Fold these 2 entries.
Entry 1:
Amino acid sequence: MTGNYALQQTRRNNPVAAVDMRVKYALLFLASTLIFVWNNIWLQAAFLSFIVILMIMAGISAPTMRRLFLILLPALILITVIQGLWSPFGETAMITVPTDTAVIGGLNIFYVEGIVFGLVVCCRIMAPMLAFQLVFLTSEPNDIVLGLVRLGVPYRVAFLFSTTFRFVPLLLEEFNAIKDAQRLRGIDIDSFGLMRKLVAMGRMLVPLVMICLSKAQLMEIALQAKGFSGSAHRSYLNPGRERLTALEWLMIAAALALLAGAIIGRLVFGFGGSVI
Amino acid sequence: MAAGDRDEGLITFDSVTYRYPGMALPALDNIRLEISRGEFVGLIGATGAGKSTFCQALNGIVPQFFGGEFSGSIRIGGDDTIDVPTSRLAARIGMVFEDPETQITATTVEAETAFALENLNVPTAEIRRRVDLALASVGLSGQELKHPANLSGGQKQRLAIAAALALAPDIIVLDEPTSQLDPIAARDVFAILLRLNREEGLTLVVASHASEELAEAADRILLMDAGSVVEDGPPDRLFADIARLKHCFVRPPEIAQTFGVLARLSPQAVPEQPPVTLDAAIAAIGPLNLRPKSSGRGPDSPVVRDAGTAALSVHALKHTYPDGTVSLRGIDLDIRQGSFTGIVGQNGSGKSTLVRHFLKLLDAPAGAVKVQGDDVAAFKVSDLARRIGYVAQNAHQQIFCDRVDKEVGFALTMQKRDKAEVHAAVERSLAAMELGWAADRHPISLSRGDSLRVAIAAVLALDPEILIFDEPTTGQDWRGALAIMEILRSLNRSGKTILLITHHLYLLPGFVERLIVMNGGTVVLDGPLRDVLYAGEQLELAGLAPPQTVRFAGKVAGLRPLRPLGPDDLADLVADGSGQAA
């Protein structure tokens, strides 16, 4: 079936996917920090665009990107509306209620600066989410583990980390199957009120947890049978390059330099501090 | 080979008794045996007999992983499985499990094959060499960079075998390796195992319910019952003891059962000990002169209960998945009200996609799918539940409540039905499934078979006219599978329309009236069970093998006109004493 492997990797036949894992971790680090240095919408938008361009170069399909965006959309709209209404940056009113209106006459609704700051917050959410999706869709679990090990993370911890990501599609698949099982038994959660919906969803956790525990145990037995002990003393089919190329060093240096420059620019010159 | 290996069996069980933590009865009970290098050992027994525990004891997972009480010793060559860690025993014993999904951990075929070697710190160049050899050995060369998720079920099991094979182990242990595969994929897996054993001398231990395949491939069978090995011998002796196998709830090869019937009908034409493989049966059979009963035939003469509106119908139904896979290529079908219909086909033939359209889990064009004459487009999935009950393959795992009666009434309670109505529906459903005794029990405390009956009772609470069962007998032993088929028959006799999806053709005689065969998204055969099972080449082209009795009758002149479907059917067709020598 096609829907089971939503997080399946893209092929590594492009420069973005083929780059060393340590460069990808540098990108993740940058995407998780730079967004908090800048308040400026143009800088945030430029950085977000950069990540989207990388995703396109990596061959990640538009439906995959759209799916993540649609998942986040309700939260993004809510954040923008709340910031538009009540942001402390608000100065320029977008809508003013006519003064002859009773009680709320003259009230300002939505401020330009608030809306823009709301969009900045949206960029802060989108940038790391897309960066993580980019990295994990273009990396084999083996590379993720190897990259972490080369950064000094213990092998057992690195393996756990990558297994968690492997387990997510299984979990989603089981969740959908259980949801379908409820619908097929005549339980239409969407038509329920809040309380009954919570009860029905709570009940879904019972089989989900049971099935996941059972699968986790079977997986652990299979790992044991394959000689897995968590030891770092292991070999690799594709050990990759121990040494980074000059270009990869340059990319890591550029990422760190950009972050350092952005911090200094913000602290010393106030660069990127205003929302517009 | 270690020096000690030549002096003793490769595997030695010395008075092994094992009890899981908190369990009163032992899962392994005083097992003493030896397995020599190069043997192909089949492990048979009912569910719960101890087969999986036996397999997991071989590489120390039992008791190292599970704990519990263990006495005696198991030695693999010179290694005691108690003293040597499982991770080291893995170099000597490769394991293949039932479920391909949970044993595959990597995201490419080659990475999966290499994983155990990486764990054992084998040098990279040697890993590459062994991975290439192992993949070639199971016919997966050229698929190295493919994601395992994109392999078929049979290919996944072949990948699991390759991963075990790459270890260059002394032994490969396979626990129900074919139970989730369609017949052709299962046949391919056994063919690979047979070649590895015969040509490369690999020692194999295979736990399986597939007695017919084991009878062909294994050179030694261990019959387990309640944790003990109660019989140990060659397949032609052990599988011929039909009474003993039935006593242990193990399905004898069908051909042996058929010879059991022929021994009564025409004793001069059959040997004293029934053959256990098809080839042996064809060689052993003498001239037959069987006279059919004059009365009409049984289940292949369907009784039309309602010739009116079809329970389910599809017209020119096509479906293509978002990735471009064409799953249905224009299906036209009508399922009669009150009928008992089987749908068979290889994995990927379109069976599940078709059923998902009946249930509206997939959208169809307006008018293409109708339930009791009404277009499903007009319904929500949850509304259809009152017309169609669906029992999934893992229905026994989809349990939402902590008591059986609550579970059965769960949907009605959530729909805020009147308490009296819920109570009456629960009582009725529990009675139909003979589960009154379990009303206050926790569903998880029940056996797998009883859990499945709870799931069926929960579906019946909504009183649907149509019931669809998706592979209900997968993973069940013979007793469990027959019990499920009896339930389906009694539901059908109470007026329900039954649609059964299955891989197990041998279970259908005596139950199913009509059989639909799907292949490549189309219906390739559709008719009374007997006609479809005797369709010969057409059935083979769909990747299906008819039951042994059908294949046997096709080769034997004295049986061919009778077209028996199985041993019981043969007994029904032939007049007693008709084949006696004059």
Entry 2:
Amino acid sequence: MANKKEKKNKYFFENKREIELPTLIDMVFLLLIFFISTLSLSSSGDQDLPTPSRKSFTLPRARGETSVLTDEILSTLLIQVTHVNDNPASPKVVYILQPDEQNKLTEVQALKKVKEEISRSSPDSSHYGIVPENAFEMPGAVRDTTHVFSIIRQNIQEYTEEHLHTPSISNTIEVRAAQDTEFGIINYIMEQCSQYGNLIPKITFRVLSSEKESLVNQEEEESQGGV
Amino acid sequence: MAFNKYDMGRKKPQMLSLIDMAFILLLFFLVTSMVAQMTREEQKLAVPTPENKPGRAQILVQFVDENGFLFLDKSATAIVGQVQNNFGYKSQQWQQQRIVSRLMDDRYFTKTQLLARLKELKMNAANHPEENYFVLIRCPDEIAYYHVIEIIQAVSGLSNINYGCVGGSIEDIQNADDIALVTERDSHGNKRANLVISF
């Protein structure tokens, strides 16, 4: 009896165990999920985004009001401040994008139009200007006469005279500026807008949603879409 | 009763389960790191156009640097009054420097503290809709504008809070022509001491 038990135990503990098939299948599925997720996440960066791409444009993080579509129609004057060639060490450049009369021009198309204008005409375009590196060391009166600040002033004035005839809560001018844009440039834009009083009651800044905001939105979407 | 005693022996760790766990952990950290780096949605943030007309500000927010602020409200008048009373025999320039030094000691806030104070201000403004508030934000031109956006966002949203933005540094206040208390009557006819800084 004891010998039988010993043999049984010996068999139980010393016999070689074979590889279990369900575990192998688990591993195959895990590898499959791994490669699918890495493939899908790496390909999401290849979407056709406006230049500079929304991914690389370092906008401030704040809680915004409305989302911006990838290929949004330009509905108002947009002042875009970015680095030359998206290089953070390079000087800043200002693009001033105006909507067309039919309101069918997208941001990408408007930016392309300005760049074509630059390549055709001299760098003294009325919709493009490079911020001088010593702009904030100059006296304010001298700085206001530089090309870039002059075109900001002129374009805001022209746009207001042509399109903003009556005070309305929807009248606005948009600013899309890299996060490290100096306050002096933005303050100049705000000063110019404030001269028109109720004709430009608000200024719209492009921001990136903060982490908390994106998580809250995700939770809201899940709770609305969930069973 | 004689129970069978199994000699359980030492159980060897299940290697395949361990490999499963390793892959699950790898997948978990990979996905979370990818999600953390994903592009956030671009949004529009509308702020009221600042009022940059000359006038009086009830609250002054002066950027000392990117994360330090001088916050002057009506309670700052007490500090100015104290210096003027205690050191009235000293020269105007000495008193002015003393005032600025005391204000920097007492009214210097970090961003977190400032945002908390502005939140209190908004609550007061919401509870007293008949009162109008004006916040003047002074910021050096070189500072990145997104710092100012955070402050503007903190004060905007109520119709009885207006704000203004001007360029200027703390040195302008330190070298101001005059910092004085002026007693005036407010809209209700009550006397109040106002801090006037002349640049």
